[in-house]
Amino acid sequence: MAACDGLVVRVRPRAGRLSQEQAQGLAQLAQRWAHPVLELTNRANLQLRGVDPTHHAHLLGALKDLDLVDADAEREALRNVQVQPFWDAADPTPDLALQLEGLLARDDAPALPAKFGFAVDTGPVPCLREAYADIRLERHADGVLVYPDGALRGVVVPAADAADTALLLARWFLQAGGAPAGRGRMRALLQRIPLPASWQVAPRWQGAQSRPLPGWHQMGHLVGLVFGLLPAVTLSALATVGALRLTPWRCLLVEGDAPLPQLPELITKADDARLRVDACTGVPGCEQAAGPTRELALALAPLVPPGRRLHVSGCTKGCAHPRPAVTVVATRHGFDLIRHGTAAGVPDHTGLDHDTLVHQLQQSFSHAAHL
After folding, report:
1. Distance in angstroms (rounded) separating the CA atoms of residues 268 and 368
2. What local confidence, expressed as pLDDT, does residue 309 receive?
3. In this predicted model, what pLDDT tens digit does every residue of 93-110 receive, in sequence order?
4. Residue 62: closest CA among 31, 29, 107
5. Which of 283, 274, 220 has its CA nearest to residue 247?
6. Rounded to whole angstroms, how far apart are CA atoms 185 and 134?
7. Which of 32, 108, 195, 281 lies at a 20 to 30 A Cα distance from 46?
8. Residues of the chain below pLDDT 50
9. Most distant CA pair in the chain: distance in Å?
10. What is the distance between the alpha carbons of residues 250 and 130, in angstroms, rounded to a whole number?
């Protein structure tokens, strides 16, 4: 994928996990053939930016040697599988994720839209319901519940059959007209047509875990990354501690209980204000952006109270946070402010300068605190 600062190469580690060797190798490749800061996306992928086209083939070959990309790029694009990171050795999660990824890589796999994805959320408590996915797999007392995003019911099958069942549901999505022009999402389809009764056998569990926060968890340390930015040297340092599991929360779970390196770019405390802001690449990394975003978001982070979220977007696409939030959009004439909505929403205030924006945000957050 081309960007204004060079090619972007996306890495989808199998079952959402980098071994220590893979992480060290990826860090070295970023330093050699790309921008030395990787990006952890809200779909639990890693991106290498700034790749010179003349180095692209060399980089892909090295990534294949690390088993981090597939030989067939088109098949790899279908391997959109997010994995809950808190699994242990007795958990079926990694095997189920690998089985699903294998089915998606086969020649007879359904031709799904590029962003169509799966969430393997088969831990004790679902934790990926806020993650972007079209088909969800969750633990059930009688096996695995497979259900479409946007529905409250699905079917329960043995764990050994869950991946095949997820593919059956994906084929129903296509047959039902979910992607007439090669694009489409499951939730949007279910807003147009009902889910067949045969897919509504069992309800999903009503509870779910809210977004996990940095700190010690059962399988290791969960560390946050500011805007998902991961310097290659930091990746290498974390890999000396343990294998890494990727998450859609722009956090990494570092396996094991060894001490973490003390680095300022790592968010290790749950009350860090930087966790409450999202920002896209902005200027100069994105040609569609109307202004810088990340510096502004960091400056505004102390204004955001716990439990609230601020999204600073360089344009109306809102790539960093497509869901409603307090949203600031950079424009050619200043900043637009949307008190609750996405970057594509109707602004409550337009063309604000920096000081007026700060004042409006202070009012917005203060008013919400008194409701």
Report:
1. 27
2. 95
3. 999 999 999 999 999 999
4. 29
5. 220
6. 6
7. 108
8. 369-371
9. 58
10. 13
Cα–Cα distance for residue pair 358/319, rounded to 1 Å: 23
Rounded to 5°, angle at Cα 116 from 208 and 90: 45
Contacts of 94 (CB under 8 A, 6+ apart): 15, 17, 83, 87
Report cis status (omega within 30 of 0) of the bond before 284.
yes
Q: What pLDDT does 2 receive?
A: 65
Which structural domain range is residue 312 located in? 273-369
Task: Give the pLDDT score at 284.
Answer: 87
| Residue 82 within any structural domain of the chain | no
Task: Identify residue 308 by its one-letter amino acid code.
Answer: R
**CB-CB contact of 46 with 39 (8 Å):** yes
What are the tokens at 85?
């990171």
Helix H or strand E encompassing 20: helix 20-33
Same domain, 260 and 281: no
* Domain end residue (candidates: 203, 234, 251): 203
Q: Give the integer Cα–Cα distance in Å for 40 and 249.
A: 9
CA 127 to chain CA centroid, Å, is 13
Residue with tokens 């009503």: 206
* Helix (H) or strand (E) segment spanning residue 11: strand 6-11
| Amino acid 370: pLDDT | 38
The secondary structure element, H or E, covering residue 100 is helix 93-104
Give the total number of structural domains in the chain: 3
Alpha-carbon distance of 40 to 225, in angstroms, equals: 8
CB neighbours of residue 65 within 10 Å: 11
Put the strands of the sheet holding 6-11 in their side by side order: 2-3, 6-11, 46-51, 37-40, 229-231
**16 in a domain, yes or no?**
yes
Q: How many CB atoms lie within 10 A of CB 77?
A: 16
CA 187 to chain centroid: 18
Helix or strand or coil: residue 198? helix
Q: Distance between terminal CA atoms of the chain?
A: 45
